[in-house]
Amino acid sequence: MSDNDHDNGHGHAHEEHEAGYYARRIRAMEELLIEKGVLTEEEVRRQIEYMEARSRANGARLVARAWVDPEFKARLLSDTKAAAMVLGIDASGPVEFVVVENTPQAHNLIVCTLCSCYPRAILGRPPDWYKSLNYRSRAVREPRAVMREFGFEPPDGVEIMVHDSTADVRYMVLPMRPPGTEDMGEEELAELVTRDSLIGVSPPREPARVG
Amino acid sequence: MRFKPGDRVRVHAEAKPGHVRTPGYVRGKEGRVEAVLGEFRNPESLAYGDPGLPERPLYKVSFRQEDLWEGYPGPPDDTLSVDIYEHWLEPAREETP
């Protein structure tokens, strides 16, 4: 699954052409907005830096801390922005965040059927497949089949809870801590937290077996 | 706030054009209020340059997958929840568990 939202020079000729067209159109709009005094170059640059400072790693740190610290976990579930701030992640803004917890009884899956709403202020840009019509239409009506395609078969008796983030709230999954990680520290645990596990299409990595 | 967690609600079935955030697949369906998410500006007018005021209460409403899709391929406990603004909701017609 490619994580590239922009032309990286390795796509098909057709894709490069499309990216070129949209990139040119966006640049033209940006120049107009700057010329008319709606935006400044500085604001555009700052916003790009803001988005690029956000990534899966932020979500992984939040999850790893929640796995080792029950008080932090309670805060992450009740007030996500405040919990993020504890780790220096500034998710302030008009959008609200809700973290949903996976348990042995229930597994959560996030989708935005209407567009591509995603907890960008924490995780940055969503993967391309998250924005695809295929994922958006199927995650709501056959979530188990979608997970199976990601190599994940929820155990029998586990209820699937799909969250369609259609409005002003962005959702992130708190996955279950994998078995066999009792001796691992927070940083090591964070390495196990994949982007896909924060969306809920699959569980986190399990630790490599040694010996 | 017109509704509280636990209330049974029905989503309006109307087909409204514009920047509507209520997905078509839940319109006319019945679900349960799971949480009150706060009050937000109305996207249906906000998207067209209007301030979107007054703010509208937003609810997390959960549905049984079986009630949404005929022949849903999964167990009856599976649920789906959608965030829906108050003006799209009315009390469910009959009290079902």
Folded structure, characterized:
The complex is a heterodimer of chains A (211) and B (97). Chain A contains 11 helices and 4 strands, in the order αααααββααααββαα. With 211 residues, chain A is mainly alpha-helical. In chain A, 47% of the residues lie in helices and 11% in strands. Chain A has 2 domains: 13-52; 56-199, Nitrile Hydratase, Chain A (Alpha-Beta Complex), CATH 3.90.330. In chain A, strands 1-4 form a two-stranded parallel ribbon. In chain A, strands 2-3 form a two-stranded parallel sheet. Chain B is mainly beta. Chain B has a single domain (8-91), classed as SH3 type barrels (Roll). Chain B has helices at 43-46, 65-68, and strands at residues 8-11, 30-40, 56-64, 79-85, 89-91. Chain B is globular. Chain B starts with 7 loop residues before the first strand and ends in a 6-residue tail after the last strand.
Question: What is the fold's blueprint, element by element?
Answer:
The complex is a heterodimer of chains A (211) and B (97).
Chain A: H1 13-35, H2 41-52, H3 56-68, H4 70-78, H5 80-86, E1 96-101, E2 106-111, H6 120-123, H7 128-131, H8 133-141, H9 143-149, E3 159-164, E4 169-174, H10 186-192, H11 195-199
Parallel strand pairs in A: 1-4, 2-3
Helix pairs in contact in A: 3-4, 3-10, 4-5, 8-9
Chain B: E1 8-11, E2 30-40, H1 43-46, E3 56-64, H2 65-68, E4 79-85, E5 89-91
Antiparallel strand pairs in B: 1-2, 1-5, 2-3, 3-4
